[in-house]
Predict the 3D structure of the following.
Amino acid sequence: MSPKITGELLRQLRQAMKNCKYFSEPIQAYIIPSGDAHQSEYIAPCDCRREFISGFDGSAGTAIVTEQHAAMWTDGRYFLQAHQQMDNNWTLMKMGLKETPSQEDWLISVLPENSKVGVDPWIIAADQWKNMFKALSSAGHSLVAVQDNLIDAVWPDRPERPSTQLRSLGLDFTGISWQDKITTLRAKMSERKITWFVATALDEIAWLFNLRGADIEYNPVFFAYTIVGMNTIRFFVDLKRLSDPAAREHLQLDSPSKPELSIQTFPYESVYTELQAICAALGPKDKVWICDKASCALTQVIPKTHRSPIPYTPLCLGKAVKNATEIQGMKMAHIKDAVALCELFAWLEKEIPNGNVTEISAADKAEELRSQQKDFVGLSFPTISSVGPHGAIIHYRPLPETNRTLTVNEVYLIDSGAQYVDGTTDVTRTMHFGTPSAFEKECFTYVLKGHIAVSAAIFPNGTKGHLLDSFARAALWESGLDYLHGTGHGVGCFLNVHEGPCGISYKTFADEPLEAGMIVSDEPGYYEDGSFGIRLENVVLVVPAKPKYNYRNRGSLTFEPLTLVPIQVKMMNTELLTQKERDWVNEYHRKCREVVGAELERQGRQEALEWLIRETQLII
Amino acid sequence: MSPKITGELLRQLRQAMKNCKYFSEPIQAYIIPSGDAHQSEYIAPCDCRREFISGFDGSAGTAIVTEQHAAMWTDGRYFLQAHQQMDNNWTLMKMGLKETPSQEDWLISVLPENSKVGVDPWIIAADQWKNMFKALSSAGHSLVAVQDNLIDAVWPDRPERPSTQLRSLGLDFTGISWQDKITTLRAKMSERKITWFVATALDEIAWLFNLRGADIEYNPVFFAYTIVGMNTIRFFVDLKRLSDPAAREHLQLDSPSKPELSIQTFPYESVYTELQAICAALGPKDKVWICDKASCALTQVIPKTHRSPIPYTPLCLGKAVKNATEIQGMKMAHIKDAVALCELFAWLEKEIPNGNVTEISAADKAEELRSQQKDFVGLSFPTISSVGPHGAIIHYRPLPETNRTLTVNEVYLIDSGAQYVDGTTDVTRTMHFGTPSAFEKECFTYVLKGHIAVSAAIFPNGTKGHLLDSFARAALWESGLDYLHGTGHGVGCFLNVHEGPCGISYKTFADEPLEAGMIVSDEPGYYEDGSFGIRLENVVLVVPAKPKYNYRNRGSLTFEPLTLVPIQVKMMNTELLTQKERDWVNEYHRKCREVVGAELERQGRQEALEWLIRETQLII
């Protein structure tokens, strides 16, 4: 991976920062958040502005360019990658380390007095704008909304915004019609005396309408906005997409069942003016719900007295708790996914000794095997296929210039997942195809202990996921080890592989309590820089637990693994496991053998079945 | 415990709420926070306004009275107690339960449109004012600062504000002179470009000046304010107290060593006008530090552009990390405290079968035995001495009308502590003097497992205490049990038994990371309403740990118990303990025997020594 040469680009950007075409007075700093006008985590090529200006293409990062400096904030997953992708013009700001200043503090320390800091108000979320605005103001600077994006101004061949075909999902996949979802939403609105709701998150809009798209790689979403009132539904989308008869039929555009379920369609770009018109006609008591993470631009259209910002919208909460149909779909998707992975691992075991398998070819093989499964749509994120030292680059993605050959001498980590029409998967396994070192086994075993501690945890109803994070770390901590990322994230159902409002992380306190039906990942790790990486990830479903007692009738919850792929016993130092932990491994492997074995048999994949049976033998 | 009859009082208060003597327009609700003008947790009798109006005397609670309603918010420790102390005029709002509305939500739900809600701005903290102000404004109501306290208006025989003698502490107790503390504070101020610092918390002022008082029972503090500039120190206190030559000498009032260490003294009440004068003379860049938990009244004196609110002051942080002298003092205090408790338990064992020991006489005996120890000053909080069902009232305090006799048939819980000149103690033991039931033993053992999980935890430097809270609950959760309070609080050194900024609780996320030298309690529990209560509390010191590895050179921490009182083996179901947990118990008991045994021997307390030796036998 060689860094992007950014000297000339930065020169042009700094020129634009002084160019009065864009604003009345020059700005002294320009903030380039990652994300798009919907605050998406994964973004379309036309929105990859932070990558374009810096070269760093990880999923999280914020660049700030001043007249003298260019700095990039990112988290522990990306320290190595960002370091490798950016040239000397850039300073890496390692978030989460004590010595790293916040963006605000850094700006205040480097800016001349009374500086102006610019940002595109469509890209920055309202809550981030607010914090940045406050911090800069208190230090005598000002934050300025720059309507023309300055990166676009120096990006001559910027790609077009995609507009892919919409896919309608029936009740057999969604469990609830979009009409019923609208009705539930309106009930919540009237309960809270809310008259309008503005949806800006792409996955929420896709979930609401039971529609999927392919505008953003890996995320089956499409560019749109929606504004729901008590009697109207306004849908903002590239209108060309609605010429498709199936989509028209699904949305009942030509023959709505009831007037209040009639959808009015508008061009994507007209959301701003339409929201302005709605706000101009608000009654004195009217309240508008908008997520506090929505864009600053759209949020500020709503007059403050009418604005009711919420950390999580009812759609986000509704989407997080999967219904029975979605759970069944997720289970099916994970069985298919396990079939593909068992085949992959059986194949790797055979092929690696020949020296012909690379990180890229292994990832390609995984995709090929997944694509043979029913209702496969695509991958759910770029496959992390990493050998030896690459495993320590937490979100490594193999490129031709970094591509390493799998051998019997190094640890192999593969973190991959797929979109199936019935569900989304995300699984990480760490394997050794020769003989792992004692240290590798020791670290693997601590990570496994952490994985089990979360997976087997029983906790009261109402517990927030962040309270479980330390369980995943206790065994590592006891040996002085740790990992610099959260333990789990929400997972969508044929939607984004990362979704809120639940998760398991020491970093989040605003998460919503875990509820039966929520689905999260459980993925502790350990990374030895320059040597190897270990991560063990299952997607798990929150289910009721029935412990001996029931304190104050609160009820208890636990997790049921949806991922059913064997965990390599060769990597375990079983002496470090307690009897309870060994029992957990044996029970997990029994279930893998039973459920995935039956499917392998049905699909006639004999070699993978033999591999599965061998890899799920009892440990003692 | 019979409830206070409050009908007439509430009638008078509601009349005052309509009385234009106090404001231009009547108010529809009046908030009565607990606490005083320093936001103290424990308060002097003259400040017990919430207790006066409601009867509920727990350490935490907020009352709100409207024209129709009177409601009291308190947390799980006090649900039973508040229920028993308040009459039918009051509604108990159980904080922490899902169905309980916040104060703001409740007000909004019960108030008529455009209501005015009053509060004494000296008693409400600035951050609470801000939240309440926002919430009420957004619902069309307003929050009004009522300068005359309306409770005082209906409280004819309200006690005087105390003004006890000041006690000066030398370097042998404090380790650092007040002059050096001022110098360190000023260095932090100039590092952050702060020109003034306003100290309002009584324990911070006591710590800063190495002075103690006795204005508030259990807390060795005195009513005062301090404003520190780069060259001046202004000390606001009842000036009569400074006629004492020892105090004058200690503060160098008559012969300051350097001009910038010269203390100007002012009457306690003049802090408001003096701060106004300071603020009137501020330069355009001058910044004033004040804790965001300081009173709204004093905070709002500082113009917003000059105000720099901080969650924890440098004094709070400095006080939390104990120096070597303070640690040595805390260790000595805990050894003396353990001597007293070993004697108490040996005595109880002998006396209980005679049927003459009650909750009150046991508490008195504990105090008597503590008072025999060197440098004893008083108790550090009201002793919780509770038998059987009273143990489930988390902060129960025996009263003549509730006083229960200790028997060999019920669990006994005693949570007690003392102030010694060298340190503060806080210890809880749960004992059975006959044969505990299997269920009592089971619960005790889960609590013990939680206590050990925290005490023995190894965690990276920089970890916040709230990340350890779940360790204390895991064993209880696994059986469907839990407790509705935090796991630990900071402990002062001959100061308040509860202090910030560290602690171990699921409820706090703004806590500061744990550091070597900090001292917290570790006190999980289990409470079976109407039957028994279990809590096991040690005060523990944060110390460096040396695990096998040292990830990213961060270093690790763990806890060293300062409390050295045996944990009753009779209450344990040792089969539920792992070998590691049994080892911890044995090592803890070995240390109790060694350290406290030597002191018991030195003091010639033979019976207690025999009891200690018997109670610290190995478990297997």
